[in-house]
Specification:
alpha/beta
Length: 157
């Protein structure tokens, strides 16, 4: 078992609050010292009350799923003898009403491009198996109801 923490902090900064016209910009701080500027999504709360330059919770959710999948993929590929040069994912989350009529991220699509060093390379079916194994082991994928689709591709370096 492990415990993972984050500190989320926001301050009103002497502006009115009850009129709902306050900044949603806040800060995420992590135990390793990383600090991330965060805000509500401008798709949810209009600018200037949100800041599109900040990370929003929906983006962070998609990035977390993508990162977890990538870390498992790299570990499994290394154990199977494949040298991965790079891994780039253009992940996308779809927010819409779910079956209960509530707004939710209902689907996350991962589109990793894996570049493999010359030498041993898996077949397309082998890459699909690597992605499947990574998905099966990803802690976050195992923690959510959101459908996660992997549309991976690869090439030699």
């Amino acid at each position: 078992m492990s415990v993972h923490t984050a500190e989320i902090s926001w301050t009103r900064n002497a502006v009115p609050f009850l009129d709902n016209k306050y900044s949603r910009v806040h800060r995420w701080s992590f135990d390793g010292g990383a600090v991330v500027p965060a805000s509500s999504s401008p798709h949810v709360v209009r600018v200037p009350f949100s800041d599109p330059a900040c990370v929003d919770p929906e983006e962070a959710f998609v990035a977390s799923l993508s990162s977890c999948h990538m870390l498992w993929f790299l570990g499994i590929a290394a154990r199977q003898g494949y040298v991965i040069e790079s891994y780039t994912d253009t992940a996308e989350g779809l927010m819409e009403k779910n079956a209960e009529g509530k707004e939710a991220v209902t689907k996350v699509t991962l589109r990793p491009l894996v570049v493999i060093a010359g030498g041993t390379a898996p077949t397309d079916a082998g890459i699909a198996r690597l992605h499947h194994a990574a998905h099966e082991r990803c802690f976050l994928a195992n923690s959510v109801r959101t459908g996660i689709v992997v549309e991976g591709s690869w090439r030699f370096a």
